[in-house]
Design brief:
The protein is about 75% helix and about 0% strand. It has seven helices and no strands.
Length: about 150
C-alpha cells in the first residue's frame, strides 16, 4: 500500500514542492502512476476545501468587518489558492485594522515578491522589522531580496 511506504512522505513533499513552485524536475521524482493519482486526488480535495474556507471567510468578514484576524485568514486562503491580488487585499485589510500584525506584513511581502514587486516586498519586510527586530526569518528574507535586487541592477 502506498501510504505505508517509508518513501511516501519524501516523494509527496518533493512532488508537491515541484507542483507548488511550478518548477521543472518533477520527472526526477520517482513517482508511480498510482501515487501520482493519489496525490492529485488529495490536491483536488484540498482545493475544494480551500474554496469552502474562502466562502466562509467572506461570510465572516461580513459579520465582523473590523476583525484583522479574519481578513488575514481570508488573505492566507487566497494566497494558498494562487489568487495573489485577493491575498494582498486581505493582508492589507488586516494591516489597516491592526498595523502591528507582523504575519500579515510578512505574507503580503511574500505575495508582492511572487508578483515581482520587489519594492513593495522590501517595504513590508522593513515594516515587520520595525515591529519586531528579533525575527530572524524576516531579516533573512529582506537580506535575500536586497542582495538579489542589487545584483540584478
Amino acid at each position: 500500500m502506498i501510504a505505508r511506504s517509508r518513501q511516501f512522505p519524501i516523494l509527496l513533499s518533493s512532488l508537491l514542492a515541484c507542483l507548488a513552485l511550478g518548477i521543472g524536475g518533477c520527472e526526477e521524482v520517482p513517482v508511480h502512476s498510482s501515487l501520482y493519482l493519489a496525490i492529485s486526488s488529495q490536491i483536488a480535495v484540498d482545493r475544494l476545501e480551500l474554496r469552502v474556507r474562502i466562502d466562509e471567510g467572506e461570510t465572516f468578514v461580513g459579520l465582523d468587518p473590523e476583525n484583522a484576524a479574519i481578513h488575514f485568514d481570508l488573505g492566507t486562503c487566497h494566497h494558498r489558492d494562487g489568487r495573489l491580488g485577493d491575498a494582498i487585499a486581505g493582508y492589507t485589510a488586516a494591516i489597516e485594522r491592526d498595523a502591528s500584525h507582523i504575519e500579515a506584513h510578512n505574507n503580503r511581502a511574500i505575495a508582492h515578491l511572487l508578483c515581482r514587486d520587489v519594492a513593495a516586498a522590501q517595504a513590508d519586510w522593513q515594516a515587520c522589522l520595525a515591529i519586531d527586530r528579533r525575527r530572524g526569518t524576516i531579516r533573512r528574507n529582506l537580506k535575500a531580496v536586497l542582495t538579489r535586487f542589487r545584483s540584478s541592477r
